[in-house]
């Protein structure tokens, strides 16, 4: 039997629409998030991104989050535990313990305490979304390298585990950024942009 499709699903914030001050529409309400997790649990074989099967008779899926908002702990995590969903959080390291400065007001980021609490759960893993939330393709070669490398070092120091995966901020990458991600020791990288689908341009939906 041929392998079934593998889906990597991306979330950002889990909150009511009125509370997410970016206006970007990248949040999902807690009610809808729970409905979606219940559907995924029924319909798919679920695993973390590092354990996605290469074959199988059922469709497989992995759940990821980008950025690292406080609601990932207060709103999403209880639902994740309820449905036993493996989840990977890609963190913007400079925003840990700080508010995100959105045009319409501040929005709280995850704290190191939240991260360490979740990291004790085998369902949860943490990976890098860069140091600042910047389009790496617009930076100098030196600055983009610092963004990619420093985020990994700081995460590893604080969670005590190897960081293997990278999510491109804003989904933006090019050949130079891919090479820098490889040189920094990451095993794979993720975006939201259609690509060739190789290991350093894996698309999420």
Can you offer a commentary on this structure?
The chain has 205 residues and is α/β, with parallel strands linked by helices. Helices cover 31% and strands 23% of the residues. It has five helices and twelve strands. It has helices at 30-43, 71-83, 112-119, 141-159, 175-183; strands at 6-11, 13-14, 27-28, 45-46, 60-67, 87-91, 99-102, 105-108, 124-128, 165-167, 188-191, 202-203. The strands form four sheets. Strands 1, 4, 5, 6 and 9 form a five-stranded parallel beta sheet that branches. A three-stranded parallel beta sheet has the order 10-11-12, covered by helices on one side. A hairpin with a 2-residue loop joins strand 7 (99-102) and strand 8 (105-108). Helix 1 (30-43) runs parallel beside helix 2 and helix 4 runs parallel beside helix 5 (175-183). The longest helix has 19 residues, at 141-159. The radius of gyration is 16 Å and the shape is globular. The model has no long low-confidence stretch (mean pLDDT 91).
Q: Bin the helical content.
A: 25-40%
Cα separation of the termini: 25 Å
* H/E element order: EEEHEEHEEEHEHEHEE
Q: Helical segment tally?
A: 5
Strand content: 15-25%
Question: How many strands appear in the DSSP assignment?
Answer: 12
């Amino acid at each position: 039997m041929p392998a079934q499709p593998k889906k990597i699903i991306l979330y950002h914030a889990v909150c009511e629409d009125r509370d997410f001050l970016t206006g970007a529409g990248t949040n999902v309400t807690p009610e809808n998030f729970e409905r979606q997790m219940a559907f995924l649990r029924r319909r798919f074989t679920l695993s973390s991104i590092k354990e996605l099967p290469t074959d199988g008779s059922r469709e497989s899926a992995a759940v990821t989050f980008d950025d690292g908002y406080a609601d990932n702990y207060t709103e999403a995590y209880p639902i994740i535990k309820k449905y036993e969903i493996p989840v990977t959080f890609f963190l913007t390291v400079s925003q840990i313990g700080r508010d995100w400065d959105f045009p319409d007001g501040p929005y709280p980021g995850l704290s190191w305490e939240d991260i360490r609490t979740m990291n004790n759960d085998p369902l949860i893993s943490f990976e890098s979304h860069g140091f600042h939330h910047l389009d790496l393709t617009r930076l100098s070669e030196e600055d983009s390298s610092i963004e990619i490398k420093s985020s990994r070092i700081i995460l590893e120091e604080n969670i005590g585990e190897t960081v293997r995966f990278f999510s491109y901020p804003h989904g933006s990458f090019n050949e130079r950024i891919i090479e820098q991600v490889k040189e920094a020791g990451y095993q794979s990288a993720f975006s939201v942009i259609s690509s060739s689908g190789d290991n350093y341009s894996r698309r999420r939906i």
